[in-house]
Specification:
The chain has 173 residues and is an alpha+beta fold. The protein has a single domain, classed as Gcn5-related N-acetyltransferase (GNAT) (Aminopeptidase), CATH 3.40.630. The protein is 32% helix and 36% strand. It has a 7-stranded mixed sheet with strand order 1-2-3-4-5-7-6, sandwiched between helices. Helix 1 packs across helix 3. The longest helix has 16 residues. The protein is globular, with a radius of gyration of 15 Å. Bound molecules: coenzyme A. Coenzyme A binds next to helix 2, strand 4, helix 4, strand 5 and helix 5.
């Protein structure tokens, strides 16, 4: 069973653990982060979707059968456009069990029930097949390839942009 719980500073060590794994670093543009930085970041995150604000990251820790497995976040909120971005990561030892798919599904249920957001997007490294699969299983459209959209460890990389609209999520329900 997958649960989402509020991310807190106490999750810093686990958070840094999966954040420093090879696949995570290969596919994501991550700033170096100390344990203090991770505590500060997690402490600054919200999980109150009723108070949606620009510049705030809304983050949950994913529990699988009560064990910390990863995290899922809503960020880059644009209140004027009513769009935001989803991101997620699961520890290597917990991958391949449907955890990310379930966690993103739970987050989108909350987002489209509790906020006025009308579109959620995700950027995915062009070779990150597992992440593309998670989004496709959830009904996201693969909308296009953004050329050299990110710099990852100094290298320009192409990113798929995936999107799902609130009305599509409702239809799926
Ligand atoms: C992407 C990630 C979150 C997936 O987590 P997960 O819990 O293993 O995901 P799920 O088990 O829900 O689904 C993964 C799907 O990808 C498939 N998959 C895994 N590796 C794959 C590969 N190399 N090629 C194609 N499909 C692959 C799985 O078979 C599964 O699909 P299925 O249910 O049809 O069999 C995890 O690999 C991760 O944290 N990666 C590093 C961080 C990252 O890239 N985050 C996403 C940023 S956009």
């Amino acid at each position: 069973m997958v649960d989402l719980v509020a991310a807190t500073a106490d999750h810093a060590e686990a958070f840094l653990g999966w954040r420093s794994e090879t696949e995570m670093m290969r596919f994501n543009p991550l700033r170096a982060m100390s344990i203090e930085g991770a505590r500060e970041h997690l402490g600054s995150c919200s999980c109150d979707l009723s108070d949606l604000q620009e510049g705030v990251t809304y983050r949950w820790i994913i529990l699988s059968e009560g064990v910390v497995a990863g995290s899922v976040a809503l960020k880059e909120v644009n209140l004027m456009m009513r769009v935001a971005e989803v991101s997620y990561g699961v520890a290597g030892s917990m991958q391949g069990r449907g955890i990310a798919t379930q966690a993103v599904r739970m987050l989108l249920d909350r987002v489209f029930e509790q906020t006025a957001l009308r579109r959620v997007i995700a950027y995915v490294h062009e070779h990150n097949a597992a992440s593309c699969r998670v989004l496709e299983k959830l009904g996201f459209e693969r909308e296009g390839l953004l050329r050299e959209h990110y710099l990852i460890r100094g290298e320009p990389v192409n990113e798929w942009v995936f999107g799902i609209l609130a009305r599509e999520w409702v239809r799926r329900g």
